[in-house]
Structures are given as C-alpha cells and as structure tokens.
Amino acid sequence: MFYNYIDIEKGGQMVVADKPEKKWFFLIILLSLSLTAWGQTKRIRPDTEHVVFKAKRLINPGTGKTTDNVMIEVNSGRILRVTSADNFQAKEGVPVFDLSTKYVIPGLIDTHGHLYGGLTTRHTTCDMHAAFYLASGVTTVRSPGSMEPEGDLGLQNRINSGRFIGPRYFHSGPYVEGDPVTVAWMNPVVTPEEVRLKIDQLLRNGATSVKIYAGMKGEVLRTAIAHGHAHGVKVIGHIGAVSYKEAMGMGIDELFHGILAMPDVVPEDLTPTDYKKVMQYLSAIDVTSPEMNEIVCLAAQYRVVITPTAGVFEPMEMERNHMAEQQAYFTPKAWEILLKRIEKPMFPEAGAILEKNKEFIRLAHEAGCILTTGTDQVGFGMLPGFALWREMEIFAEAGLEPMDVLKAATINGAQAIGWSDLLGAVEPGKLADFVVLDANPLENISHVRMVHKVIKGGVVYEPESLLRPLLGKYH
Q1: Residue 188 per-residue DSSP state
Q2: Cβ–Cβ under 8 Å, residues 2 and 18
Q3: Which of 91, 87, 82, 76 is nearest to 3 (CA)?
Q4: For the chain, domain boundaries
Q5: Chain mean position to CA 36
Q6: Residue 219, SS3?
Q7: Does an H or E element contain 4, and which?
Q8: Distance CA 172, CA 375 (A)
Q9: Which of 148, 336, 342, 459 is the most buried (most CB within 10 A)?
Q10: How far apart are CA 164 and CA 383, in angstroms?
C-alpha cells in the first residue's frame, strides 16, 4: 500500500513513493488565480479530479461529531468517502492532499448576502463580492432580493458555467412588496392575482426563493406564501406590516433581522419607515418578556428559520471589526467614507440594539429555533466574508457554543436554502464544499478567520490568490 502525497505547504508538490529507494516528484498546479477574479471572461474552472484530502480533524456541526486523522475522498465534485486514516485503503494513482495539521469544516453559508452594495455604488450587482466570499470560506450565498435581477442572474450563471470564480449563489429575484411600498423604488403588488403573476415571472427568470418585503400583508401576503410553496420554493421575509406570529401562522419559511424587523414588540403607531423612532424604542425593550418567549417558541414549533443579521447595525470599530485587515481592498474614496461612518455611527442606539439582538439570539437558541448566519451588508462597512465571520462571533458572544455557531453557519443554512441534501456537511454523497483552517474553531470561533484553503466542488482555491486582484478596488 502507498499514498501519493501532495504537500500543499511546499507549493503543491506531489510525492509518489511506493518504495523507499524509488521516489519521484511531479509539480501540479492547484489553481492560480492571478487573473482579475472579478473580470474574467474565459473558462477558468478546471475539471474536478479524483483526490483525497488528509486532515488532522473534521468537524461536522450537523451531527456535533468530530473525526481525527481523517481522509476525505472526492471525485467529480462530490464526497465519496470519509474515514479514519487507519481504515483507509489508497487507490493507486489517486493523489492525497496532505493537510494533516489542519482542521476541516463544511463550507460556510451566508443566508442573507445581497449581490449589490458598496460605499460609492449601491444599486448594481457587484462582481467583487464573489471573490471576497469564496476567499473567506463562504461557499454558498443566498441573495434575498435584487436591485439588478439581470446582473445577479448573470453573475450566478457565469459562476455555474465556469467563466467566473465565486460561491454557489441562490437568489430571490426582485422583492415582492405590498402597497404602500416601504422603499420608494420597489414596485408593489396589490391583488392576489398580481402577486401570483409576479412570483411566476421571477421564478421563470431564475429565482430560487421568494422574498417578501415589509409592506406585504393580508390576503396578498397569504397568497404569496401559498403560491411560492406551490412552486416548491421557500418564502422568506423582512416583514413590517404583519407580526412575526401572523407571518408564521401563514406559513412563512424564514424571518430576517431579529428584533430590527419585529412589529410584535413595537407600538402600532410606529411604521417601518420611522427608522429613528423605531431604533430608539428597540434599544430599551425587554427581550425576556413573555411575549418574546412566545414568539421564539412558535418559531421553534413551526420550524421557521430565524436569521437575525445581528451585525448589520453594529457600531463599526477598527479592532473589533478587523478593519485594518480590510483597508487595503478599498479605494481611497470609499475608505474615507467608511472612516466617517466609524467616527459617527448611523444610529446612536446601534450598540444597545446589538446587545438586544444578542439576547434575542440566545433566547431563540434556548427555545430550539433554527438559527442561520446572514449579514445583509450592502454598504455599511465590512466586506463580504469578513462580515460573516463577525456574525459568527456575535453568535458566540450571545452565549452559543462554537459547535452551535458552526451549525448555524453550515447545515442550518443549507436547510434554510433547501439544499441540506447536498450542502452543509462533509459526508458521502454531498458536494465537496469545505474549508481548511489553520486552527481549531471549537476552541475559539474566531479561528474561522484563519482560512488556509477553500474547496468548492472538489476544486482547491487559494485565498491569497483570490484576493490579490481586488487590492484597492472595492468602492
């Protein structure tokens, strides 16, 4: 028996040794991304290989189990076997990537990652987001609402076809909003027939879920949820005109933003557009009230996914948000704008609201809710990927154990998107999406920032190579 080892630490060199006196070396190319990752037009994705990854420890948050000295066999982008090295029989000619000092977790999932955003440009699809996500170990992103649906779908198609590098994208297409609209540029639906026609259209155009917005209510909302389910897709929502309890009673699948978009706890005379007054009120609410406990218990009972996007209004700080690590990627103008936001937060109550949302996360977790990690960063500061790491840290600060945080960021996200049969775990039959870390995230969840390699569909990506073309370009 012999192994073919690819030593990633030594530049991707493969050592084939069947006898001590007979060794030879082959140089392999893992994946060079020196071309501009956000501007490629030719096919760059290599064919997936039959390969084995050897790691120090595999962490599967869905089961809560770990496997030491593990071998992960991958072929054609899927996982064939996961077993201890002691039980592994190597096949001749199949290379083994030696990651024996590293930790492996499933690919991270951002369930609220819009494709638009930036500091100087906000309303168009931003291709750069794709590389930031993948370099951070985020292999799957669900975009809940498009500003530029054609651009979002085009980016998704280019990635899927191999003409562009990025995560697996699932998007909801245009927002489905009621009348009156909450945001001026949204087009409202006012009758059940209109909402059915709109959902039919957006799903024909490639959407994989339906995102309802804050003005939806009554029979129009009920019809939207039922019609989305008739198509076999998830209906997700940022609500405002109905309560959490009403939306859950209608059958909604996922609710966003935690206490930030929870009419149940806000006086009726405050509308979703009264941002300042709503923020002031939320900064002082009692998250431990019987009413709040009833809400999270209903969400657990109905299996409604809760995505709190807790970091979206967090007051920006250089050290806490690791901004020094991100500065090099911003244009000077964008960085200047960001510094002003750090000096003068958008909402003075943001810090207090963050703490309330942490209490909500802890309450929802204790009630048995399905929690997922979503960021909703569309120009508030942190870069894609960096923002998801911070969201995971906020979950830990809320009191969740590292394994529970990883569960929220992997298998729970896959369940929310409706792809838990193929994503969210490193096990036979699933797509080969996982992250190789330099340190154990079960000791400190911040170790998810220490990304060594990212594997998506069995292809190995180098974070540094993904990020290098983006230096000084994010705006």
Answers
A1: B
A2: yes
A3: 91
A4: 4-30+49-107+425-457, 108-417
A5: 23
A6: helix
A7: strand 4-7
A8: 16
A9: 459
A10: 19
- Nearest Cα to Cα of residue 385 among 153, 148, 74, 109: 109
Would you say residue 12 has pLDDT above 60? Answer: no
Nearby residues of 245 by Cβ (< 8 Å), 6 or more positions away: 264, 294, 295, 298
Query: Which residue type occupies 197?
Result: L
CATH of segment(s) 108-417:
3.20.20.140
3-class DSSP assignment, residue 377: coil
Place of tokens 């590389």: 131
Q: Are 426 and 42 in contact (CB under 8 A)?
A: no
Q: Amino acid identity, residue 274?
A: D
Question: Taking Cα atoms as reference points, which of 453, 455, 405 lies closest to residue 434?
Answer: 455
Report which secondary-structure segment, H or E, holds 317. Answer: none
pTM of the model: 0.90
Amino acid code (one letter) for 41: T
Q: Give 38's strand partners.
A: none
Q: Is the pLDDT of residue 193 over 50?
A: yes
For the stretch 391-444, pLDDT in tens is 999 999 999 999 999 999 999 999 999 999 999 999 999 999 999 999 999 999
CATH classification for the domain delimited by 4-30+49-107+425-457, as one of 3.30.390.50, 2.30.30.520, 2.30.40.10, 3.40.50.2000: 2.30.40.10
Distance CA 448, CA 395 (A): 13
Pairing mode of beta strands 13-19, 4-7: antiparallel
Region 289-302: what's the mean pLDDT? Answer: 97
